[in-house]
Amino acid sequence: MLNFTKIKIISIYFIFFLLTSFAILNFFSNEESLFNKKVNLGLDLQGGSYLLLEIDTKPLIKERLQDKVIQIKKYLKNNDFKFDSFEINENSINFNLKDDVENRFQKLFFSTKNNNINQYIDQYRTHQFDLLIENNNYTIYFSKYGLLTLNNAAVKQSIEIVRRRIDDLGTKEPTIIQRGEKRIVVELPGLKDPSRIKNLLGKTAQLNFRLVTDEENDFGSEKMISENGEEVIVNKKIIMSGENLVDAQPRLDNQSNKPMVSFTLDRYGAQKFGKVTTNNVGKRLAIVLDNKIISAPVIREAITGGSGTISGNFTFQDVTDLALLLRSGALPTPINIVEERTVGPDLGKDSIISGAISLVIGFLLVVLYMFYKYRLFGLIANVSLISNLSMLIGVLTILEATLTLPGIAGIILTVGMAVDANVLIFERIKEELKTEKSVIHAFDMGYSRAKITVLDANLTTLLATVILFFFGSGPVKGFAVTLGIGIVTTLFSAYFIARHLTSFYVLRNKESIKL
Amino acid sequence: MKYNFNFINYFKKFNYLSLILVSISLTFIIFKGLNYGIDFKGGTLIEIRLENKDIKVSDIRESLKRINLGDINVKNFGEESDFLIKIEKKLNNNETLITEIKETLDKDLNEEVNYRRVESVGPKVSAELLKSGIISIGLALLMMLFYIWFRFEWQFSLGSIIALFHDVIVTLGVFSILSIEINLSIVAAVLTIVGYSMNDTVVIYDRIRENLSKYNKLEINLIANLSVNETLSRTLITSVTTLLALFSIFILGGEILKGFSFAMIMGVIIGTYSSIFVASPVLKYLKVSYKTLEKKEEKIVP
Questions:
Q1: Which residue in A163, A167, A189, A166 sits closest to A177, CA to CA?
Q2: Residue B234 — pLDDT band, cuts 50, 70, 90?
Q3: Which fold has domain A6-47+345-508?
């Protein structure tokens, strides 16, 4: 095990220098360089905010079922089904069908071609809805994949809206990614107080314009409280919704000097808005945001220019936020903040300093102890430890891994445990030296006999870190990454670098070796 | 250094000691329970630093009592004017809670408080984190079991798992007795302990296996004793270097890593103890002898 071919030596040191040079890259900031790679600092070290959002699909499911009602009723009529007791529940639509039409309905409901009522999802080879029939009572509900499709679309759209809202605030380098089925991770480096963002994300911002009415109509109406506490009856028919908005800006009213939001509509919106305002001059228009009236002005004249204003009891902050929400669009469904972690910049700095100090001290203690225990071979173990560390940082740099405080702890722990491989080998060599006359042979045997033990011992720790990587969350993942990579670089430095240095020394000083 | 302790005389006594330790730990874990942090229980944690050195824990508590927060826990954290506030109240929607707390504190303490850390975990997420924590530790134990089974014989696999359970239970027992908070980083520590303790056990088992085939007339207890002695020097040196690194984190690494490094220190000590005094003697009860190895060879070469 002490013989190295030239190619082997060259490749060992090539790998070492390559990784080390990547490690050194961290200390230079060269934006233009081809290898502009760096270890990123986690939010716990650089300060910032982490938010975990979860979309609530319940309202969306109900909404979609509601949308389906008219369509289903029409469909039943068109196909000569006689129905009664039609109702919508949280998750399903229920109705009774007269006569024995079970088979006919099923056939139609689950047809795979041009099925408008129950869309066929090619991707999952299944329909959007499932059907349950009990004694002429029919229940229509979302199938498993129907729900999944609904859910995925909602998450994707939510991510887009969340991104627009956050970008609009001008936060630096936000990360917004999906996690799992229903969750969105938002990372905002450098943000000290996420309360404004939380506030903005907490609103779905579904805006619609509806007429205030006294008359009965097909769509029904509902009682709502206006912005000044007055009870008004609002038509359920939506004239126009926020989707038709192309821009919204905070403004100050020229006359009253009160803050307001001015908005611009797209062509379709402008046409519709123009038509409705022309036909309803003198009536009141309710501007409804998330089912609350924010303003219900009287239509004084037709608005055909495709732009308008919303004024009410607003502060300037209110209109700024409202304009931002309207610009970025509505969330398809409400979002809850289920986890929040914010670290201030000074704590991050303190953590870096204390992490670095404990790394240096821990390193020195281990190095001194190894030198005390093994003298010259301790030095070899220490050289291998240093190269181990620089390779570890090099690999982290290449992967552009995120360094967290637990990650630093992982590096320090690597320092403590990395020497184990060399200790195992040196102890084995000592034993071999007792029975073996030839020094070189003893070293050779020591290395080869300890090999399996070293491998076994390190693989067990590696297994634990792999599990930690897959199940751990946030900063803890950083720990698994550094410790795991640390084990690999440890094996490399013990079995290649330290072994080569040992062989280099042993082969030249055959007579005077003491361990 | 050459060691020649006669561990056999102590094996039995230490077996009783281990049994007692495990029973005490289990009793505490079951009856006193573990002190879960907000990661696993849900709630809000706020770390603040104040300019005014005269403000005491009681002032902060008084201030927070004015808003209805339910169970609150305020304590000094590291430096004199650093405080940690823990609020157990579980809110599904905490959008305004933290703002409200901040406003109240700023007003009552009469200064612009430096909020160093704010963490809030909802009940659903905390339940999931606890679940994945338990699963990951369980999975780690299972993988170790199979790894040793694959590399050694089943008796060794069982022996090492007994030692691992011993380590995990006693470490958690100490946490229960001392009411130390269990959070995500403690789970990381326990997993690392599992890896470390396994590492130690594997080294000794490797030697036991080697000695079993070398001295096939000796009974397992003597072999275990010999193997433990032969590897003792390595066991101690590695424990020392690991502990040096860990103490460095514990003392200098700041408050956030205190719990983690303490758990690791405990774990390294318990893990080292268990590989000598649990994993090795337990092989006798599992009736390991040189025949155990032979059987395997027969199987391979029929």
A1: A163
A2: very high
A3: Multidrug efflux transporter AcrB transmembrane fold (1.20.1640)
Tell me, what's the pLDDT at A231? Answer: 83
Report the pLDDT value the prediction gives residue A33, as an integer from 0 to 100. 61
**CATH number of the domain located at residue range(s) A209-315 in this protein:** 3.30.1360.200
Residue A42 sits at the chain B interface (C-beta within 8 Å): no
Q: Do A6-47+345-508 and A209-315 fold alike per CATH?
A: no
| Domain of residue B47, residue span | 43-121
* Contact (CB<8Å) B122/A452: no
Residue B181 sits in a domain whose CATH number is: 1.20.1640.10
- Number of residues that make up chain A: 515
Report the gap between the CA of B200 and the closest CA in chain A (Å): 7
Q: Percentage of chain A with pLDDT > 70?
A: 97
**B73 close contact with A: CB closer than 8 A:** no
What are the pLDDT digits (tens) for A78-117? Answer: 888 888 888 888 889 999 888 888 888 888 888 888 788 8
Q: Which of A347, A363, A472 sits opposite B188 (nearest CB)?
A: A472
CB spacing of A354 vs B132 below 8 angstroms: no
Q: Is the pLDDT of residue A402 over 70?
A: yes
Nearest Cα of chain B lies from the Cα of A132 at a distance, in angstroms, of 31
Complex ipTM value: 0.91
Q: Which of A489, A307, A470 is nearest to A395 (CA)?
A: A489
Q: Considering B121, B136, B162, which residue would you say is the last residue of a domain?
A: B121
* Residue in B with minimal Cα distance to A203: B95
Strands A40-41 and A402-403: parallel
Q: Which of A446, A495, A423 is nearest to B200 (CA)?
A: A423
pLDDT in tens, A269-313: 899 889 988 988 888 899 999 888 888 888 888 888 888 888 888
Q: Which residues contact B136 (CB under 8 A, 6 or more apart)?
A: A467, A468, A470, A471, A472, B187, B191
Q: Is A180 on the interface with B (CB under 8 A)?
A: no
- The whole-angstrom distance between A347's CA and the closest CA on chain B is 6
Mean pLDDT of A325-335: 91
- The minimal CB distance from A339 to the residues B125, B133, B135 is found for B125
Strand order in the sheet with A285-289: A240-241, A207-211, A285-289, A292-295
Average pLDDT, chain A: 88
Question: CB atoms < 10 A from the CB of B58, how many?
Answer: 9
Domain count, chain B: 2
Give A-chain residues touching B92 at CB under 8 angstroms: 336
Spatial contact of B187 and A476, defined as CB atoms under 8 Å apart:
yes
pLDDT at B92 over 60: no
By the CB < 8 Å criterion, does B246 face chain A? Answer: yes
Cβ atoms of B184 and B39 within 8 Å: the answer is: yes
Chain B residues inside the 8 Å CB shell of A355: 253-254, 257
Question: In this structure, are B234 and B249 located in the same domain?
Answer: yes
Cβ count within 10 A of residue A266:
14
Q: What is the CATH number of the domain that holds B69?
A: 3.30.70.100
pLDDT score at A421: 92
Domain end among B74, B96, B121: B121
Identify which of B140, B198, B252 has the shortest CB distance to residue A467.
B140
Q: What is the pTM of this model?
A: 0.87
Which residue of B248, B255, B260, B261 to mutate against A (max A Cβ within 10 Å)?
B248
Average pLDDT, chain B: 88
Q: Do B140 and B194 have their domain in common?
A: yes
Query: Does any domain span residue B110?
Result: yes
